[in-house]
Amino acid sequence: MPDINTSKINHLTMEDKSDISREFVRLAKYAMAGRTSDATLLSRRVLRSLSKSRPELQDEIKRAISESVTSASPTRTITAVPVDMESRMELVRREARPDLEITPIWPASVARELGDILQEREHTEALLDEGLSPTRSLLLIGPPGVGKTLCARWLARQLHLPLLTLNLASVMSSFLGRTGTNIRTVIDYAQKTPCVLLLDEFDAVAKRRDDASELGELKRLVTVLIQSIDDWSPASILIAATNHPELLDPAIWRRFERVITFPLPTAPEVKQVIANEWRVSVNCDAVDLVGDMLTGHSFAEVARDMARVRKQSVLNGTTADESLMSFALTLKDRLPKEAMMRLAKQLETGGHSQRRVSELTGIARDTLRIQQQPKKSRKEGKNGTK
Q: Which residues have CB under 8 Å from 148's CB, separation 6+?
């Protein structure tokens, strides 16, 4: 902060002096605790407030704020990733520009959260000028395969930041104290340059401290993580992901600025994944049918099934419709009656005889013949009239 001349301080009211003293104490507390990002944000807010009451200091204050923006966004490139001292395995996997194997389909609630984060990052300087910080930490929760890891990759790509992913296999050590040291090393490394740090399977290192089955070292790890989240630089984003949020220490939850829940995909989202995989219209009858059958499955499960079916399609020389209908038949046992009738109708439309459709679906031929009749004819038949 710029020096304040004592004679000029005398012109301030007692209330102003009290406010400045209070803010100075907080600033000293942050600085001595090594909480650089918090000290920077508080300094910016105090300077901005001071510029209104002390117009003669505005130029100096602007220069100080400008310098803080530069220092909050380091550009130094880090190339050598840290390794475990015993195994020499890398503690993080670093990707300068993460690749996305699929186009993400975000549920509406997730899309809103991610949109807010991108907007904050686009206006970082405006937020900093008000003593605010863009979102620095995210906790992603949800069942496996719903897009948590993909979200971290997508955000890193959108923000043009490298992605650092914690390597649990190398970080977790049987040597007492080594795991904590490795975690600190990874966090220190990530803090040296703007990045997205992903702590996947977060429950493995942030379990409840009241869990009697856990060693004291893992309990101390939680304290380290809490401090790291609190002090995280606004130039980077810390993302933790877990399939088991109930295992997390309660204090961890309060530290994350945003908690985003990833639900299982809805029927329209499943159908969109299938259509994207096959590069066909989402209104395709086969896509519609298989999408209904796979609703309740994760994105990863749907993508895995479609990859397998597409391979068979290439090997057998079949079309998308034929392949999807064949796949639907393998799942027919889980179909409700209405969906099974739709499958039978589509098989008939595809050129199969009623005998063959009956064999494939288990629906009686008489039932198929009745379903083939126009609704008006069926109604007349029930009334015994022509």
A: 140, 141, 142, 200, 241, 262
Which residues does residue 207 pair with via DSSP β-bridges, in sequence order? 248
User: Which candidate, 1, 160, 28, places its Cα nearest to that of 96?
Assistant: 160
Helix ranges (DSSP H) in the chain: 6-9, 14-32, 36-53, 58-72, 108-122, 124-129, 148-158, 168-171, 178-190, 216-230, 250-255, 267-278, 285-294, 299-316, 320-330, 337-349, 354-361, 365-372, 375-383
- 364, 358 in Cβ contact below 8 A? yes
Strand partners, 105: none
CB neighbourhood size of 356 (10 A): 12
- On the question of pLDDT at 226 being above 90, the answer is no
Contacts of 224 (CB under 8 A, 6+ apart): 180, 183, 184, 187
pTM of the model: 0.69
* Cβ atoms of residues 100 and 153 within 8 Å: yes
**Residue 226 in tokens:** 């809490």
Superfamily of domain 92-261: P-loop containing nucleotide triphosphate hydrolases (3.40.50.300)
Residue 22 and residue 11: Cα distance in Å, rounded?
18
Distance (Å, whole) CA 302 – CA 305: 5
- The answer on pLDDT for 17 being more than 70 is no
Per residue in 158-215, pLDDT (tens digit) is: 999 999 998 877 777 655 567 778 888 888 888 888 899 999 888 877 766 555 545 5
Confidence band of 1 (pLDDT split at 50, 70, 90):
very low
Query: What distance in Å separates the CA atoms of residue 183 and residue 92, rounded to the nearest whole number?
Result: 10
Q: Count of residues for the chain? A: 386
Q: Which residue blocks in 231-295 are alpha helix, DSSP H?
A: 250-255, 267-278, 285-294
Beta bridge partners of 137: 238
* Burial tier of 206 (Cβ tally within 10 Å: 0-12, 13-18, 19+): buried
Q: Tell me the C-alpha to C-alpha distance, in Å, between residue 366 and each of 118, 122, 295, 355, 357.
A: 59, 64, 30, 10, 12
What would the two tokens of residue 267 be? 């029927």
Strands 258-261 and 137-141, sheet pairing: parallel
